[in-house]
Amino acid sequence: IVLQENAQSRAGRASGTLEFFEAEEFRLALVLEEQSAAIVKYQNANFGALPNTLAFRLNRQTVLQQRLNAVQRDISSLKEQRRRLVEIFNATGSIANSNNLPVNPEIQRLTQLKDDLRRALAVYSPENPKVKLIKAQIAQQEIVVGGQLPGIEPQQHAPLTVLDINLADIDARLDLLENENLQTVEQLDALINSIDKTSEIEIVLSALNREYTNTQRQYDATVDRQSSAAAAERIELLSKGRRISVLIPATAPQEPESPNRPRIAVGGTILGAALGLALIFALEFLNSSIRRPSDIIRQLGITPLATVPYMPTPMEMVLRRTMFMLIFVSFIVGIPATLFAVHTYYMPLDLLYDKVAEKITDVI
């Protein structure tokens, strides 16, 4: 019985432990999924300012700053070149001697055609086919130059001067450089903002990753313990864990420690006799039936001349004696039999006596 109870108890504990670790593993897996989703969501929301791209963005900032400085220098140089071209033209009426003319093949071609036209007009009349051919070439070249320089519309500015062509070229280059400067400044500002936010994002990501790491450790430990619990449950179910070691062998007592049976017997006899006498006295005291002549005088208030006692028949005498014997036998046999049944099938009388005594002591 002890081995069976011990095996059942240990198997129950092993099953309960395994169920606990299975539930804990499921809970920690859900927590890990939630934390992973939170980390991914935060990284996607701050994709351009993650700590792992900080070195690239710092290098990018340096490149953009250098590019911005170069663009601003080019803008300043073109503005200064445009100012000097205008000053030279206003002073001399020509920019042929300027060393700051932009090198553009189409503009050089147009300038060359105009020089050829001046030389041809010095020799031929305006109606000469050669002169007309040069003029047609000049018109065609102006269209080409105007397409390259959006600020010039040859149809509205005919003929174009060399100053107009050079100024339009410089203005077009200035527009490109201004747009590039604006875009570079915007990129640089966005990059600086992302770099400034990186420290805050790194702190939040570190906290999220720390929570994830702690949960991962708990999950790993739970999985290990779950494996151990599963092995323990299999061992218990296969009855491999039934083992009881007797540390101190039991010693059979020579005499019962309790209860004191002689005292219980003497006390029970005296108490039973006293209760019997008390019952007889109570029945006699409470019986109000007429049994003596004095009872007639006391209850009826008359004095009888004579009294005749009740004389039972022989059958009544037999029935009375039979009833008395049955009651006597039931007390003599029934009480010991009841006590034997209680002692054998319910609880030993000494243990029952101890429990009743404890309850009476608690009530007192």
Topology:
Blueprint: H1 2-45, H2 54-92, H3 105-123, H4 129-148, H5 162-237, H6 261-286, H7 293-300, H8 314-346, H9 349-363
Helix pairs in contact: 1-5, 2-5, 3-4
Task: Tell me what you see in this structure.
With 364 residues, this protein is mainly α. The chain has helices spanning 2-45, 54-92, 105-123, 129-148, 162-237, 261-286, 293-300, 314-346, 349-363. Helix 1 (2-45) runs antiparallel to helix 5 (162-237). The longest helix has 76 residues, at 162-237. The chain is rod-shaped and about 200 Å long.
List its traits.
9 helices, rod-shaped, 364 residues, mainly alpha, 0% strand
Distance between the termini: 38 Å
Taken from the alpha-carbon principal axes, the silhouette is rod-shaped
Q: What is the tally of beta strands?
A: 0
Strand content: under 5%
Structural class: mainly alpha
Largest sheet, in brief, is: none
Low-pLDDT sequence parts = 97-103, 151-158
Q: What is the CA-based Rg, rounded?
A: 63 Å
Q: How many helices in DSSP terms?
A: 9
Rounded average pLDDT: 78
Summed up, what is this model?
The chain has 364 residues and is an all-alpha fold. The chain contains nine helices and no strands.
